[in-house]
Amino acid sequence: MHLAYPTVVAALLFSVGVYGVLARRNAILVLMSVELMLNAVNLNLVTFDIWYQDRLHGGQVLTLFTIVIAAAEIGLGLAIVLLVYRNRRMVDVDRLRDLAEDTARPAEVEREAEPVEEAAP
Amino acid sequence: MIWLASLAVSLPFLAAFAGMLFGPSLTRVLGGRPEAPAPLRNGPALIACLPIAVSLVLAAVAAFVVWRDPGERTGELTVIQTGSVPIRVGLQVDGLAAVVGLMVCCVALAVQVYSVAYMRGDRRYSSYAAFVSMFTAAMLLVVYSGDLLVLYAGWEVMGICSYFLIGHHWEDRANSRAAVKAFLVTRLGDVGFLLGILVLGTQAGSFEIDEILRDQGALSGTTTTVAALLLLAGVAGKSAQFPLHTWLPDAMAGPTPISALIHAATMVAAGIYVVARLYDVFVTSTAALTVLAVAAVISMVGAALAALAQDDLKRVLAYSTISQLAVMAAGLAVGAYNPAIFHLLTHGAFKALLFLSAGCVIVVAGSNLLAHYGGLRRGMPITFWSMTVGFAALAGVPPFSGWFSKDSVIEAAQHAALHGGESTSATALHRFSVDDTSSLQWPGDVVPTFQKLPSAYQSELSIDLRAATAVVDLPAGVAWLVYLGLLLTVALTAAYAMRAWLMTFFGEPRGTYEIREPSRFMSWTVAALAVPAAILGFFGLGKEDLRPHLGAALLSVLLVAVGAGAAYLLWNRDPALDPARALGGVRPVLARAFYVDELYAVAIVRPVQALARYVVTFDRRQVDGAVVGTGRGARWLGGLLRVPQNGNAQTYLTGLLAGVVVIVAGVVIFL
After folding, report:
1. Domain ranges in chain B?
2. Verdict on whether the full-model pTM lies above 0.90
3. What are the tens digits of pLDDT across the range A32-49?
């Protein structure tokens, strides 16, 4: 099998993931897109493991690691999403703006330096 | 010899610190009440009076030694290497320094003793006494200094002490303003003085006074003229001569003993003393002498006229000080070195007396204004007679001290006027011949107890002659101006002295106070000072150029009679009124001293204030504006960058990705 097929599939998969992460508004779908990206990477690892005929199968081993990490990550991510949902009754990423500066109380209050009156008359 | 002088200088200096640090605790140790201790249990007073008394003894011993064995003694304490002209910290005792030092110590002791009573109960007495000690030490340093820079140090310390003392009652805004004015005006002159010292020192290659006087013949005429004129600026500032005289009348804001100290012994005497000290430098410069003479004539006549119309007793005396110092300056300008120094000494005696007795009057009457006095002679005889002696000496009534000294100045001025420039050279030659024998010609009629002092004075003055051998080259017109100015001043002085005397002591009392003698400390000090004020003049009899001459003497007595008589006749018409009413429309002009203060206010103070205000505005608008503007600019830029930070994590990631793509593309394309 030519190397192009799996790599192109992986690239497409990764692109779909990137698009999902950047553009989807539902937090769960964003997490799923992250999974897509991870799996695209896994596909690449397996492909090149076969392609290089690595005797120790480092690519495949690393893929197993990635799957484990992805499982842990998705668990954590879903827990966060659940908490968000409990607090706000929605998981719309676009409306989660807590990272922004609080516009009601700007970081540095406009403390207009009042001219200090000189001691001399 | 030098250790005598060093001790005399350092004792009051140390006393100043000791009094400030330990004075109040000494009071407690001695068991005095802290707020108003008895004089003998008053710690600050003891620490102030005893050292100056010891200094007086030391100065008297020094003067005695110089009298027995005339000549100049110099001593070097240390040399400060500066890389170019070294500073020799040295003292010098010669005739001039010895007599002036003695005079300073006498007056300072009198002032300290007097202050014990005058300032009793004052909260800040300990700092007051300490500053008086410091003031005295600084003046003694000026007097005994052998090096111009050491002299300058004393000169400056005096300036700052005068500031503190004039502003002693700083709670009153007017007093602190007067202190600032005195400080700033004298400072203005000091700038010139320092420059003059530097010019002299660098050109002569030494700051030592002896060295400069020895080498000054080698200096170019321009250098000496420039140096002398610059020094004159400092002299005019300290001695309150014409352009810079305005601080002195305002300095009356200080306590009265301070006025006595400033006017008689320390501050103002320093200016004249420095001219006498560097006389050879001044003598070689006709321009400097002419400036000195003209400033002196303006000061003496103007101040005497102003004194005529003052309502405040202390201000009358203040203007009389300006006038009398101008007489000395005029004497120096016409080459009358000895008479000028003689007048400095007699003036020190009678002006200290006048101020201290004025203090007695003020304490009793509770007012400075002449209009509140009257009839005081009945209740306070000691003050009355002492002040009478003082006024007589001031006006130049024979045989009081002022008559002798003023007369000898007038005589010299007359000589200079009649014989033009070369007259003084004749006098100088004449002095030479008299020089060796004069110290033996004591007047036989002097009281025996004072035999020592007069001889000391005598001998000092005869030593001084040697310093003044140079020919004074003054334009004849200026000499005439000086002579006529002196004569006019004599009449005016008699008039204002008479007016102040009559208004204070005669007529009916115009106030509701009890007329009595003040504390014994005060009246006795005054009485003691009356003695030298009365008889100091006789000490000059042994000296040819200090002896009264018939023509000049008769003329000045006549003028005194005219001035005093006019004042008396005006007063006699209605003793309840001020004789100055006869001045009519001129009176306000004279009372404001020809509006010099107002002129300065318009010409100097207001422009400077306007400039200061402009600078403040410039600072606020431009400098502060630049700083604040930088801040605002940074904030605005930050605002621009704040827009992308909208809290949407996806936007951040998009930006991140775009950045990575750009970098990768750049790497791929360009590498």
Report:
1. 323-416+476-591, 427-467, 605-670
2. no
3. 999 999 999 999 999 999
